């Protein structure tokens, strides 16, 4: 504390401070010691008093023990008094119940009257009095001599009618409980009275069970357990109500299950609403009556649904059941009803049937649906085939295109089944769509085969069926309708992420439909060219050169047929027009290559060539008219006829090679036999000239127009037969 010289001035101050601290410490020490001494003094005093008390108690116990030993003999002498006290107690109980004992028959009659009049509370009060009298007498008898069954049976027999009254009253109570949902609306007081009686009996049961634990005695018929019995009766009532809603069978009504489920829905919803709004107020809170009833209904419904699932259900019945179980049950139409919330939480409800049962039903449904779809498609096709042989034309759509009802029937069937599947869940909807597509693939193959058979049967007798052309047009149009319907079905029922699963099937169906349409178009054109055959045979003959009107007839016939073909939908009509144009030109060129005529001089060649050019122009005009609006190039094919005509028309034989080479350069698929036939028709080319031209052309190379579609490869040139060679 003293580190610098100037601190010496504070020495006295430091001394006084330290002195105060020392005095304070000493004072605290003295106070503490004094407090300890006072505590020790008090403790010693209390110990001294306790010792004296113990000595007094010890002496008292000695005195009590001495008195007790002296009074043992006296207690044994009081046994008779004890028995007298017990007998007095029993007699007192008998005297107390004497009035009730003598009035038992009267009370029984009064109680019976109360029950018959429906005065249940009064009846129960009388019954309680009787039971109380009997129970007290039997208890006193039990206390006096528990092994004396004779007296016990005597009391029980005397009160025998009381048990019948209890049972009769119970029947009345259970009738009210069974009709509780009706009673609570008409006479809630009656229901409350029943609950009060049950509660009284529950209290008596508890009291008797407690006495049994203490004494071992319990009256006959106890415990009654009326509360437990009440819930059992409610449970049976709920089960009976659910089962009793089936009013019809499959034999009497095809919609029996739909009706049954709808009645169940209505009844259950109505009952639960009544239970929540009215019944809950008539029962004590600890009964939790609404939740108990909710569980009862849920269990009863689960049992009923499992019973229905185990039956041999049809496909539509399986759908009705699953839709109800998986969707309707938890919807706003039933358990999800806003008036039942928040007491009913649909998310906490267990499934009515297990997932295994659901899967089994779905599997059965898919199997049945597969068989049904196959049958429906077969039947639809058979019906459509019958239409094909009718003597009346098929119907036309709003745009005037011929059609049959087959696509509408097929896709209406698919649509209905998909709508039904969508009611259950997305997974089933996708499975049904895949099934429909799969069966559609098989169906289209059969459709193709039937269309081919239709054509073959017609070729046996071209007069039958009368409307063959019109119905073949309808078949072709159906292909386009099928395509559009498939796309519409996919767009409506298939999720985008699932499209890949159907891409291959869709491609396959489109390919099959294109084949059907192509074969249909081909058969129609065959029909045209069978009618044209006599006129085609006139081409490039002497008769033709003399002025035959074969081409005019051909054009009129084609145009007439195409008036009917106007009823073909655009994609296929366009194909028909192009193919008809090509086949007419091919047949015309084939007529040239058949060498039916050989021009004798330049005049005939000129006349024939000009006729060919004129007829090419007729064809061009015709197909330009038929292809109006299609955007097709109708010029190129007829140009081939004109190019051949130019070769025939040539007057200077020395330029023949040049003209032929020009022809070959334009149409590189032209073969040597075609050139030879063309020169033969021309009539002025010697064998050596033909050989020279052909050999020279073989050495040259021609370049085809990239837009040129080979046509000469379809045309064969007839070879000379042996008789002709001999000539």
TrEMBL record:
Pfam families according to UniProt: Sec6
Keywords: Acetylation, Cell projection, Cytoplasm, Exocytosis, Golgi apparatus, Protein transport, Transport
Location of this chain's protein in the cell: Cell projection, Growth cone; Cytoplasm, Perinuclear region; Golgi apparatus; Midbody
Domain of life: Eukaryota
InterPro entries (UniProt xref): EXOC3/Sec6, EXOC3/Sec6_C
A GO cellular-component term linked to this record: Golgi apparatus
Any single GO BP term: protein transport
Family of this protein: Belongs to the SEC6 family.
Subunit architecture: The exocyst complex is composed of EXOC1, EXOC2, EXOC3, EXOC4, EXOC5, EXOC6, EXOC7 and EXOC8. Interacts with EXOC3L1. Interacts with BIRC6/bruce. Interacts with MYRIP. Interacts with SLC6A9.
Task of the protein: Component of the exocyst complex involved in the docking of exocytic vesicles with fusion sites on the plasma membrane.
Designated name of the protein: Exocyst complex component 3
Organism placement in taxonomy: Eukaryota, Metazoa, Chordata, Craniata, Vertebrata
Designated gene of the protein: EXOC3
């Amino acid at each position: 504390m003293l580190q610098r010289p100037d601190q010496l001035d504070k020495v006295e101050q430091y001394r006084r401070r330290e002195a105060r601290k020392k005095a304070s410490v000493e004072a605290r020490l003295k106070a503490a010691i004094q407090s300890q001494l006072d505590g020790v003094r008090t403790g010693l005093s209390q110990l001294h008093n306790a010792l004296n008390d113990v000595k007094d108690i010890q002496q008292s116990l000695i005195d009590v023990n001495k008195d007790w030993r002296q009074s043992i003999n006296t207690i044994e002498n009081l046994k008779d008094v004890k028995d007298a006290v017990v007998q007095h107690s029993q007699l007192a109980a008998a005297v107390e119940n004497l009035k009730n004992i003598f009035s038992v028959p009267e009370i029984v009659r009064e109680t019976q009257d109360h029950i018959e009049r429906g005065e249940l509370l009064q009846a129960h009060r009388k019954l309680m009095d009787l039971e109380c009298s009997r129970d007290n007498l039997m208890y006193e008898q039990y206390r006096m001599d528990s092994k004396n069954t004779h007296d016990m049976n005597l009391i029980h027999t005397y009160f025998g009618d009381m048990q019948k009254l209890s049972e009769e009253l119970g029947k009345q109570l259970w009738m009210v409980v069974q009709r509780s949902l009706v009673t609570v609306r008409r006479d809630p007081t009656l229901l409350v009275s029943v609950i009060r009686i049950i509660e009284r009996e529950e209290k008596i049961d508890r009291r008797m069970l407690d006495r049994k634990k203490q004494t071992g005695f319990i009256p006959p018929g106890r415990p009654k357990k009326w509360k437990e019995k009440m819930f059992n009766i409610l449970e049976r009532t709920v089960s009976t109500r659910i089962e009793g809603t089936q009013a019809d069978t499959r034999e009497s009504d095809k919609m029996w299950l739909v009706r049954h489920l709808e009645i169940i829905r209505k009844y259950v919803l109505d009952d639960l609403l009544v239970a929540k709004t009215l019944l809950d107020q008539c029962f004590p809170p600890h009964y939790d009556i609404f939740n108990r009833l909710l569980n009862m209904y849920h269990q009863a419904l689960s049992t009923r649904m499992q019973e229905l699932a185990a039956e041999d259900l049809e496909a539509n019945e399986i759908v009705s059941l699953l839709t109800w179980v998986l969707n309707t049950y938890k919807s706003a139409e039933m358990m999800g009803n806003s008036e039942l919330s928040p007491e009913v939480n649909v998310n906490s409800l267990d499934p009515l049937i297990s997932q295994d049962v659901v899967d089994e039903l779905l599997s059965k449904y898919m199997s049945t649906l597969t068989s049904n779809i196959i049958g429906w498609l077969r039947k639809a096709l058979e019906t459509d085939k019958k239409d094909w042989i009718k003597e009346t034309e098929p119907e036309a759509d709003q745009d005037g295109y011929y059609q049959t009802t087959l696509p509408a029937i097929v896709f209406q069937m698919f649509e209905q089944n998909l709508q039904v599947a969508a009611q259950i869940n997305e997974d089933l909807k996708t499975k049904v769509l895949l099934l429909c597509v799969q069966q559609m693939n098989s169906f289209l193959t059969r459709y193709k085969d039937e269309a081919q058979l239709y054509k073959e049967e017609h070729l046996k007798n071209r007069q039958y069926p009368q409307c063959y052309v019109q119905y073949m047009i309808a078949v072709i149009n159906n292909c386009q309708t099928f395509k559009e319907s498939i796309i519409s079905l996919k767009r409506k029922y298939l999720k985008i992420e699932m499209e890949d699963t159907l891409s291959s099937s869709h491609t396959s169906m489109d390919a099959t439909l294109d084949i059907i349409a192509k074969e249909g178009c081909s058969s129609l054109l065959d029909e045209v060219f069978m009618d044209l055959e006599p006129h085609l045979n006139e081409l490039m003959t002497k008769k033709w050169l003399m002025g035959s009107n074969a081409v005019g007839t051909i054009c009129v016939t084609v145009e007439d047929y195409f008036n009917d073909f106007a009823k073909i939908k655009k994609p296929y009509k366009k194909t028909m027009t192009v193919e008809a144009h090509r086949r007419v030109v091919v047949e015309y060129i084939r007529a040239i290559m058949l060498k039916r005529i050989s021009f004798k001089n330049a005049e005939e060649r000129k006349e024939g060539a000009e006729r060919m050019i004129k007829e090419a122009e007729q064809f061009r005009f015709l197909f330009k008219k038929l292809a109006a609006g299609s955007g097709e190039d109708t010029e190129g094919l007829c140009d081939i006829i004109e190019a051949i005509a130019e070769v025939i028309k040539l007057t200077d034989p020395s330029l023949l090679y040049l003209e032929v080479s020009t022809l070959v350069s334009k149409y590189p698929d032209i073969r040597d036999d075609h050139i030879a036939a063309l020169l033969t028709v021309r009539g002025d080319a010697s064998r050596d000239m033909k050989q020279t031209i052909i050999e020279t052309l073989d050495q040259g190379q021609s370049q085809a127009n990239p837009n040129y579609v080979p046509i000469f490869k379809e045309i064969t040139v007839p070879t000379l037969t042996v008789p002709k060679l001999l000539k």
